[in-house]
């Protein structure tokens, strides 16, 4: 069951990747013995709910929130591990996530126990890095 999140910030490894045009940030950290993935758009004007819209379009109609959350984590992890659609990997930078996103607990998936989605910002990124990227499948994010 999802819950609304408070503002949070961190520092560490961040993967910036594109998915169907918009650019997203992915960071992870240990909280109370649970590994938590933080994922959200860094492209200006892209609402964080876009992740859930994309996950809904790319999953079966009956997929529950934890399954969609696992799919979102899979996409971020795919970029981290294989470099697919990576814009930039930052080895140790600051990031922030605004109040009002969602936290969804999941069974451990890709070494994560929960997903937090929301408005994500990384001060070190340039305008070019956060701009919408070309894609063959823009309809998934439109």
Measure the end-to-end span: 26 Å
Q: What is the CA-atom radius of gyration, in angstroms?
A: 14 Å
Strand order of the largest sheet: 1-6-7-4-3-2-5-8
Give the DSSP E fraction (strand runs of 2 or more residues).
Answer: 35-45%
Biggest sheet descriptor: 8 strands, mixed
Shape call = globular
Mean pLDDT: 95
**Total DSSP E strands:** 8
- Parts with pLDDT < 50 across at least 5 consecutive residues: none
What percent of residues adopt helix (DSSP H or I)? Answer: 10-25%
**Structural class computed from helices and strand pairing:** alpha+beta
Order of helices and strands: EEEEHHEEEEH
Number of helices, where a helix is a run of at least 4 consecutive DSSP H or I residues: 3
How would you explain this protein's 3D organization?
The chain is an alpha+beta fold. The protein is built from three helices and eight strands, in the order ββββααββββα. The chain has an eight-stranded mixed beta sheet. The longest helix has 18 residues, at 65-82. The chain is globular and about 35 Å long.
Concise summary:
Helix content is 22%, strand content 41%.
List keywords for this structure.
single chain, about 140 residues, alpha+beta, eight-stranded mixed sheet, 8 strands, globular
Which helices and strands, and how do they pair?
Elements: E1 3-4, E2 8-18, E3 23-31, E4 34-41, H1 49-57, H2 65-82, E5 86-97, E6 102-109, E7 112-117, E8 120-121, H3 127-130
Parallel strand pairs: 4-7
Antiparallel strand pairs: 1-6, 2-3, 2-5, 3-4, 5-8, 6-7
């Amino acid at each position: 069951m999802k819950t609304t999140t408070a503002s949070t910030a961190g520092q560490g490894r961040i993967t910036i990747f594109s998915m169907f045009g918009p650019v997203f940030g992915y960071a992870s950290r240990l909280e109370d013995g649970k590994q938590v993935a933080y994922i959200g758009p860094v492209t200006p004007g892209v609402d964080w709910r876009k992740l859930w819209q994309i996950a809904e379009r790319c999953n079966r109609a009956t997929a529950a929130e934890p399954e969609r959350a696992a799919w979102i984590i899979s996409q971020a992890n795919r970029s981290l591990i294989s470099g697919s659609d990576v814009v930039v990997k930052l080895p140790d930078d600051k990031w922030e996530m605004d109040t009002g996103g969602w936290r969804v607990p999941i069974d451990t998936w890709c070494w994560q126990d929960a997903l937090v989605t929301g408005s994500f910002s990384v001060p070190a990124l340039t305008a070019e890095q956060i701009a919408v990227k070309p894609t063959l499948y823009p309809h998934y994010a439109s």
